[in-house]
Design a protein that fits this description.
With about 575 residues, this protein is an all-beta fold. Helix content is about 0%, strand content about 30%. The protein has a six-stranded mixed beta sheet with strand order 16-17-18-19-24-23, with no helix packed on it. The protein has a five-stranded mixed beta sheet with strand order 4-36-37-38-39, with no helix packed on it. Strands 7-3-41-40 form a four-stranded antiparallel beta sheet, with no helix packed on it. It is globular and about 60 Å long.
Length: about 575
């Protein structure tokens, strides 16, 4: 099946091919995994033992230890959250995790207490896909996902949202490869509803098989926003169809249909409020996947489009299509697009999510592009000379040093050890400072990298100014965490670094001896980070390195752990 994208002024038309034999698997089909919710510290991801073939992912959620107020946890009950965790730390207000990074700065830091370090993920019951609760420790509940899940969970309003695939169908009438957004009850792990998203039909080149939904949602009150595997931006009602079809969009049955026959909807399906078909409207060509988490700022949404190269990794099908756009959160209408030429310089794809800060009391969007540059944009659009609303570029910073771009006057090839990298991890911001690392698709292996601290005050010549850089670190796809003057940065080669945020000096390094896709999370005085060996590494925050714990899981841990309401949630695998 070919999907034809209509041509737009200034943009060529092109076709998405359904078969690209030359494209290798970015994510090989792996053993079945699981989403873990650690109510006070959990672990994540689990995979079936090699002696039998599991078909689904699970979710673990841990129980609390004794609270600071002297309240001991009641007896653990499998499949339910045993205690309202606010009781554990009465002096600490509960905090949700409503979007990727926790908030607009995208800094992976959360106030929390009482998260246990001693975690045992448990064992599967013989010849089943069910974890035996008697074999777990500090696990609250477990819920099945699909076989792969790369969307880091979001927790807000008593609900947990996670992107996955459809290899454990919740709707038996809807089988086969799909992108799936699942919603669970935060306290009990009860499945509430799901959004079913058919595939693009372009194969690995734009919607990789069985990868599922890669975006983390953004929750804003009673509405949520997600970028689908088809490159659409969807607004949904957080309650699903349980309270009726709110509209104005009422064609959910057709939206989720693969064969043209409407899906039989129940209260276990999503209630879509509007759909913005960004991919077709703007002629976007997502490379491999659509991987961006929306950023909600006031009445606007900032979204990266994942526009990039085709299967050959040499041709850019849509060089004039925007890599970053601004959308009206009430209607889905595109308000503005970047006009900085990111797409025509794309090395691979623009997968990074945007962040937001105030610089000199003025709003600024900060974003890492698929061309390896970090950008600052004004939140208010301007009228481009070609007649469309555009994002005003405030600065541009090359996150690659010159020697990664050229050697002996010749451009260095991409996807080589010494060549340039894009920005896949999210750029985090702290006032007028930004922190970022460069990296590539893990399929490309190790290579040179750089960690940068950027001054966001630069204007005029479109050249951003680095306060410091550190080229000791190799490639990374992990978003850093900034806490009390220390930056915690994971490297793809398996190292976790503690860096002085003022100087860029590495204070200590912990070697996990395994690949890292996960981002670091700081919560409860600890740094959490998963690795490909299925270990959740827990380190003490501070200028001296101390290993607190290393709970093990059956599956590689690709997603980033998140903390909400004194609870640690760990989802199935995803680069973030």
């Amino acid at each position: 099946m070919n999907s034809h994208l209509p041509s737009l002024p200034g943009r060529p038309s092109f076709r998405l091919s359904s078969a690209h034999a030359a494209a290798r698997a970015l994510w090989a089909r792996r053993p079945r995994r699981a989403l873990s919710c650690g109510a006070d510290g959990t672990a994540r991801g689990e995979v079936a033992p090699p002696t039998w073939a599991a078909t689904t992912t699970e979710v673990w959620c841990s129980r609390p230890r004794r609270g600071r107020a002297g309240i001991s946890a009641p007896g653990y009950k499998w499949g339910a959250l045993a205690l309202t965790l606010g009781l554990l730390a009465p002096a600490l207000s509960a905090a949700d995790w409503p979007m990727w990074g926790g908030g607009p700065t995208r800094n992976m830091v959360q106030k929390a207490t009482g998260i246990p370090d001693d975690i045992v993920s448990g064992k599967f019951l013989p010849k089943s896909e069910t974890i035996d609760p008697k074999t777990t420790k500090n696990i609250r509940w477990v819920a099945k996902l699909g076989s792969q899940s790369y969307g880091t969970p979001v927790v807000a309003g008593g609900r947990v949202y996670s992107g996955t695939n459809n290899e454990s169908p919740r709707d038996p009438a809807q089988t086969g490869d799909r992108g799936i957004l699942m919603c669970f009850d935060e306290k009990t792990g009860e499945f509430l509803w799901q959004l079913i998203i058919p595939k693009v039909g372009a194969g690995k080149v734009s919607d990789w098989e069985f990868v599922g939904l890669c975006s983390s949602v953004a929750i804003d009150g009673d509405r949520g926003y997600v970028v689908t595997n088809r490159g659409e931006l969807v607004c949904f009602d957080v309650k699903g169809l349980a309270d009726g079809n709110a509209g104005p969009f009422t064609d959910e049955a057709k939206f989720s249909s693969v064969d043209g026959k409407p899906v039989n909807l129940t209260d276990k399906h999503a209630d879509i409020l509007w759909v913005s078909d960004i991919r077709n409207e703007l002629g976007i060509f997502p490379h491999n996947v659509s991987s961006c988490s929306p950023l909600v700022i006031g009445d606007k949404i900032v979204m990266a489009t994942s526009n990039g190269v085709d299967w050959s990794h040499l041709n850019i099908p849509a060089p004039m299509a925007p890599a970053l756009i601004l959308v009206d959160k009430h209607t889905g209408k595109v308000l503005a697009e970047e006009a900085s030429g990111v797409s025509k310089r794309a090395l691979h794809a623009s997968w990074s999510s945007a962040s937001y800060t105030l610089v000199q009391n003025k709003p600024m969007i900060v974003w890492g592009g698929g061309d390896g540059f970090c950008y600052g944009f004004d939140l208010e659009p301007y009228q481009h000379p070609e007649g469309f609303p555009a994002l005003k570029e405030l600065f541009r910073y090359d996150a690659n040093p010159p020697e990664y771009r050229t050697k002996n006057g010749q451009p260095l090839k991409y996807a080589t050890h010494d060549g340039p990298s894009e920005i896949i991890a999210t750029v985090i911001v702290d006032g007028d400072r930004a922190f970022m690392s460069i990296g590539q698709d893990p399929e490309h292996g190790d290579g040179v990298g750089m960690l940068s601290c950027l001054d966001l005050n630069g204007r005029g010549d479109l050249t951003g100014k680095a306060i410091w850089t550190n080229k000791t670190l190799g490639r990374s796809i992990s978003t850093p965490s900034l806490h009390e003057g220390l930056l915690y940065q994971a490297e793809y080669n398996g190292n976790i670094h503690c860096v002085d945020a003022k100087t860029g000096k590495i204070l200590w390094t912990y070697a996990t001896n395994s690949r890292i896709w996960s981002s670091t999370l700081v919560a409860d005085g600890k740094v959490y980070c998963g690795n490909e060996d299925g270990e959740m590494v827990i380190l003490k925050t501070g200028r001296e390195m101390k290993l607190v714990g290393k709970p093990e899981f059956y599956t590689p841990i690709y997603c980033s752990p998140v903390a909400a309401n004194n609870t640690l949630f760990v989802s199935p695998p995803r680069a973030s």
